[in-house]
């Protein structure tokens, strides 16, 4: 948020509070004045009611002492305006008449007292003056509110200046080099304590990044080399004469080797930004390479592989990242079905891997992409689809799955407008 926006909000807050309070007290003043005036007329009528009761008890003619109060023995004697409204609202005691006439009524056991108070309505006569006074008061309060707002802004500016300095230090620091040793320039107050805590947190982050970079570098070199050696040794071992038990053990080692290779590639891709750089990649060559990589899994199965990908289809993803995703999805399909059809298709925005296997159980479908989730027949560690999901989130790709007894469909949907067909 810009500083001017924050300043305007503070000013609007003070002005709004001032106007609201002024309007509230102005309305309260009018209500108070009208209420006092009404209570005065009620008191006058109550006093006259006692006089009328005394006169009637003595057999005298009922005659109010005040000239603007009249006694009416029957409802039909009341003024027309009072009669009409009293018929609709029997409990009403205040009435407006023709012109500026205004009546207050008190019902007696033997008649009515009516005060025509248009000449006695003090609030009505001074209403304009009261309104002018309240408006002048509004203006004065508004000026005071603006002064207080500016004073508060100046104080806030002084108080948050160290915080602005701290923000600038963090903003100006390059991404690859986090700031350090900056907390000493701040006073030992709340902001100084915050700067010290932030410095310690950035130091921990810097050490963590350093460890992660070292780990990624070491994994890339120290693990890939023995994995490659192991893979070549397994390839040579498969070409020797093995009995059934040995062949089974070698197959299990090869499966584990393949899982390690895939996991290693995905984890390194997630850790290294350059591996995930977006580029337009032709899909068909990657699909063909993935099928060749996973071919061993369907060597002894009755499975047909159908590829429905035009040679011209491209998608906005690096070739290595696309191969990592398809290696997991296609390998998963090849592993978990024993017979049927696996179909790999692509359009200008999506890639789908569908199979005609037995489907995924509804309960398993809910946790399919969680780490360690796997089916009862799975020999893996249940990390492949979890890593696929993380990779899709990093690349802003929508990953979805649907499954039934007729099979399962995994779909990768790329952001709108990013994919295209090259001609």
From TrEMBL:
Annotated SUPFAM superfamilies = ATPase domain of HSP90 chaperone/DNA topoisomerase II/histidine kinase, Homodimeric domain of signal transducing histidine kinase
Alphabetically, the GO molecular function entries are: kinase activity
Protein name per its UniProtKB record: histidine kinase
List the transmembrane segments: 12-36, 130-153
CDD domains hit by this protein = HisKA
Domain of life of the native organism: Bacteria
Tell me any Pfam family this protein matches. Answer: HisKA
Q: Which InterPro entries match?
A: HAMP_dom, HATPase_C_sf, HATPase_dom, His_kinase_dom, HisK_dim/P_dom, HisK_dim/P_sf, Sig_transdc_His_kin-like_C, TCS_sensor_his_kinase
């Amino acid at each position: 948020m810009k500083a001017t926006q924050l300043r305007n909000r503070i000013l609007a807050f003070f002005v709004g509070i001032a106007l609201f309070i002024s309007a509230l007290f102005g309305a309260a003043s009018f209500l108070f004045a009208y209420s006092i005036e009404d209570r005065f007329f009620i008191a006058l009528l109550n006093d006259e009611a006692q006089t009328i009761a005394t006169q009637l008890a003595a057999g005298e003619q009922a005659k109010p002492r005040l000239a603007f109060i009249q006694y009416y023995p029957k409802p039909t004697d009341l003024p027309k305006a009072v009669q009409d409204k009293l018929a609709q609202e029997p409990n009403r005691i205040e009435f407006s008449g023709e012109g500026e006439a205004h009546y207050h009524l008190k019902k007696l056991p033997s008649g009515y007292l009516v005060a025509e108070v248009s000449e006695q309505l003090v609030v009505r006569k001074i209403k304009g003056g009261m309104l002018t006074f309240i408006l002048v008061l509004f203006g004065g309060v508004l000026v005071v509110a603006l002064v207080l707002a500016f004073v508060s802004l100046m104080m806030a500016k002084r108080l948050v200046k160290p915080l602005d300095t701290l923000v600038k230090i963090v903003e100006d620091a390059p991404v690859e080099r986090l700031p350090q040793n900056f907390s000493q320039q701040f006073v030992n107050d709340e902001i100084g304590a915050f700067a010290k805590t932030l410095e310690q947190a950035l130091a921990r982050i810097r050490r963590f990044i350093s460890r992660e970079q070292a780990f990624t570098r070491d994994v890339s070199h120290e693990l890939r080399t023995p994995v490659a050696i192991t893979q070549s040794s397994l390839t040579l071992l498969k070409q020797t004469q093995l009995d059934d038990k040995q062949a089974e053990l070698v197959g299990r080692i090869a499966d584990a080797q393949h899982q390690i290779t895939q996991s290693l590639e995905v984890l390194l891709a997630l850790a290294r930004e350059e591996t995930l750089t977006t580029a337009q990649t032709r899909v068909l060559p990657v699909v063909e390479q993935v099928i060749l990589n996973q071919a061993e899994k369907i060597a002894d199965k009755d499975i047909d592989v159908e590829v429905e990908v035009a040679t011209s289809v491209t998608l906005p993803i690096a070739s290595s990242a696309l191969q990592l995703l398809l290696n997991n999805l296609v390998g998963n399909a090849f592993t978990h079905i024993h017979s049927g059809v696996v179909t790999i298709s692509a359009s200008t925005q999506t890639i789908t891997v569908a199979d005609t296997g037995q489907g995924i159980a509804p309960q398993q479908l809910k946790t399919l992409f969680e780490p360690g989730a796997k089916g009862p027949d799975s020999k893996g560690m249940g990390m492949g689809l979890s890593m696929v999901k993380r990779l899709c989130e990093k690349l802003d790709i929508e990953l979805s799955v649907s499954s039934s007894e007729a099979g399962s469909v995994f779909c990768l949907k790329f952001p709108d407008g990013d994919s295209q067909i090259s001609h």
